[in-house]
Amino acid sequence: MHVQRYTDPEAFYRRVEAHLLAREAENNVTFGILDAVRRGDYSDPYMATVEHDGALALVALRTPPYRLLFSADDAIEAAQLIADDLRGTDQVGVTGAPKTARAFAEAWAAANGTGFALEVPMHIYKLERVIPAQRAAGTLRRADLSCDESLLRRWVVSFEMDAFGEADEAEVEETLRFWLNSPPDARGLFIWEVDGQPVTMTGYAGPTPHGIRVNYVYTPPERRRRGYASACVAAVTQYLLDSGRAFCFLSTDRRNPTSNHIYQEIGYELVCDVDSYEFQ
Fold this sequence. Notes:
Strand content: 25-35%
Shape: globular
Number of helices: 8
Distance between the termini: 29 Å
CATH topology of the largest domain: Aminopeptidase
Number of strands: 12
CATH class of the largest domain: Alpha Beta
Largest sheet: 12 strands, mixed
Strand order of the largest sheet: 1-2-3-4-5-12-6-11-10-9-8-7
Helix content: 25-40%
Radius of gyration: 19 Å
Oligomer: single chain
Number of domains: 2
């Protein structure tokens, strides 16, 4: 078993595509980040595979300054080899299948004398058909940077605070402009309006060969528990399916029963668990 590094995103994609495609839903984030790398959205990515007798045991991808991302494989030894390969570099965290992410975190902490903590335990869901149901009043529209920038900036900061406990406003500003100036087949943001007033946002990004990921679902506290998030996510999901996607994905915090429940009501089905560790 050995680590193979890549510098050419297209060569890397050709090597890992079939492996990731065998579990497309579970690997949707890896596919999505790799799509952004191939588009030139990130510089100096770390791209590597762990190979055993010509077969892939694990795919590793990192776009600095973000955390390392693994394919959805239970591969403890392979994760440890990646930790060895990255020795001497600066790592902020890791995301992957629970056993694999834990193995890397333990190996990295032991080698570098640092601590680690479970940041977000996640469920990954997949949907092929939206379940028709009574929806909240309102209409869906695509976000527009020229008129929604201030609102979206506040909402994205609040989303980051709710999800991760912190938000960098300068980074949020850059991210927001990046999202809204991207090709619509790659990513975008929608707003749900009631009587002309924005009440919820939902985004999408990370296309895979047959699907795309729904994310950035946020409703301000005073607008919650009225069904707006469910309505917005269902409408965005249907839009993406109507645009030619065979299915959609999304990730949720396993500790949040409300979000997990509303997404299942729309038609999202659980496919796997993923853990994210932060190095301290």
